[in-house]
Amino acid sequence: MFWSLHLPDGHTPDRAVAATLDHLDLARTVVAAHGEGLYPARTAGEVADARNRGRVAVLFGPATAAALGDSLGVLRSLYTLGLRVLSLTGVSWAGPAGLTRFGEETVREMNRLGMIADLSYASAPTIRRVLTLSKAPVLFSRSAACALRPHPANLPDDLLAEVARTRSLCMVPLAAEQSGPAVRDVADQLDHIRAIAGPECVGLSGTYDTGGAYPRELADPSCYPRLIAELLRRGWEESEVALLTWGNVQRVLRGPRSPRTRSSSAGPRPRRPSGNWTAEGLSAAWDAWTGRTPVPRAPWALAHRGPAGWGRMGRCAGSAD
């Protein structure tokens, strides 16, 4: 679970550092107070450890870029305190024109530390420059396909192709305004992104902290089996669903890019015949993916949660003025 540390609308830039530290302190306190169910994680290994213990891993972030106060020293301090994802939006050094020199230094330092860049809501020039510069995969923590549903955070197909090239990760939000009002609409989004970026570059984002409308029958993570059943009916391989719900986030958390796997570059994938998959029948499929009894919520607990919303919407990334 990514714990969003974004600041609410109306915060003043001179208070961004202190406000983010307050949010981070609160998040750490809540996690520590609920150690029987939550587990603070900083690495892919610790996320796997939490899952094996039957607890929900909590990764702190994304936080807004304004939290740095234009200081790499603050970036390093936030990393030491546990921040693992930073949104590169809402600041002069990662704006409509792209990255400034300080912005490029920030990306390099994030790579060195192991902090993930979140590019949802970033401008197209910023996205392209970060994807070129970063030596690690980046995250689009709440972005769907603009071709299916225009939205400020959704990505056009040319940027989805760049996501594939850099082995980054586009996480489709369960938000009606971005992905559509029904389970089939979310499945359409996942199909589209998988077709362009590949099954290694698509994930799910609950975004249950926003207060917005959710697709019907996807009101919380317990409803994920309905979506998974729809994907299996459409011919998704069980291994692809395992990547969607677990493996792809783990790969991004591990850091530096590795060559694309043979299965993603050797032409069309063989399709498993469609079957009458149901939500109730998914437990057997999960056993096949993991070889053990599933821990409730663990594979699908990738929802964003936090004390604040996501900020103001802009234009669709990559769209014309």
Automatic annotation (TrEMBL):
Specify the signal sequence span.
Answer: none
GO biological process annotation, one example? proteolysis
Q: Which GO terms describe its molecular function?
A: metallodipeptidase activity
**Highest taxon of source:** Bacteria
Region feature Disordered, mapped onto this chain: 254-277
User: Which residue stretches does the UniProt record annotate as biased composition, category Low complexity?
Assistant: 255-268
Alphabetized Pfam families for the sequence: Peptidase_M19
Transmembrane residue ranges = none
Xref: InterPro entries: Metal_Hydrolase (IPR032466), Pept_M19 (IPR008257)
Q: What is this protein called?
A: Membrane dipeptidase
